[in-house]
Amino acid sequence: MDTYDILLYGSYVLIGLGAVVAILMPLIKSLDNPKSLLKTVVGIVGIVILFFIAYSISSNEVLPKFEADPFNLTPAGSQLVGGMLITTYILAIFALVSIVFTELNKAIK
């Protein structure tokens, strides 16, 4: 095991530690104000509902070239990826519309 491997494993540990701290610290801080935690839960539930709607309308069609080795894509995997893509598209469009609305609202005021 050379230096690159050690540093690579160290970076994995630091990324994991950073992710845990990024998730736990706001949760600990929100215990002082439970209403802020409720808003977070409502947002997460909304995104999960949006994903299940996108998952249900996405197709499970797999082209023959993606069924073979190196991809080994199954119809369930294809539908999952399609649901994630549709969710991403909807959230991106929502973000862009929100930005335009906010800027127009600021310009009017």
Automatic annotation (TrEMBL):
Organism superkingdom: Bacteria
Keyword Membrane on entry: yes
Membrane-spanning segments: 6-25, 37-57, 77-101
Keywords attached to this entry: Membrane, Transmembrane, Transmembrane helix
Stated name of the protein: Uncharacterized protein
